[in-house]
């Protein structure tokens, strides 16, 4: 007997389950894809909300940065992005998390990451 790949095994199992539910395998797979897309959208929205909260808390007026610091420049870029209303890129979300960790003693504890964040 030939070995089954993981995807073939899943399809065969789904086909058996669908037969008992009177649904086609395609309908079940489409539902699974919809659920996955919705989960990804929810995660993206939460990431955007958290990044915008961090950007507001890290604005140069709220946090003390050293003179000529790169962190101050990054915080200003985040504040500009927040003011423009455009969504944050994944890299900007990482920068916001990094700055929140680095300046965690000057901002609210609920928006600080749970552990150290590597410099992006």
How would you explain this protein's 3D organization?
- By secondary structure, the protein is mainly α.
- It has one domain.
- Helix content is 64%, strand content 0%.
- It is built from 4 helices and no strands.
- The chain starts with 5 loop residues before the first helix and ends in an 18-residue tail after the last helix.
Keywords:
120 residues; mainly alpha
Would you summarize the structure shown here?
By secondary structure, this protein is mainly α.
The total count of helices amounts to 4
The amount of helix comes to: 55-70%
The class by helix and strand makeup works out as: mainly alpha
Integer-rounded radius of gyration: 22 Å
Shape: elongated
- Integer count of domains: 1
N-to-C order of helices and strands: HHHH
Task: Outline the secondary-structure elements.
Elements lengths: L5 H16 L3 H33 L12 H15 L5 H13 L18
Helix pairs in contact: 2-4, 3-4
């Amino acid at each position: 007997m030939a070995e089954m790949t993981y995807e073939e095994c899943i399809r065969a199992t789904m086909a058996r389950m669908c037969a008992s539910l009177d649904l086609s395998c395609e309908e079940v797979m489409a539902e699974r894809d919809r659920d996955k897309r919705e989960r990804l959208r929810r995660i993206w929205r939460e990431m955007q909300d958290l990044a915008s909260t961090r950007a507001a808390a890290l604005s140069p007026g709220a946090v003390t940065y050293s003179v000529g610091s790169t962190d101050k420049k990054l915080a200003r870029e985040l504040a500009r992005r927040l003011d423009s209303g455009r969504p944050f890129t994944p890299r900007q979300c990482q920068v916001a998390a990094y700055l929140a960790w680095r300046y965690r003693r000057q901002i609210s504890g609920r928006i600080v990451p749970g552990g150290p964040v590597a410099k992006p």
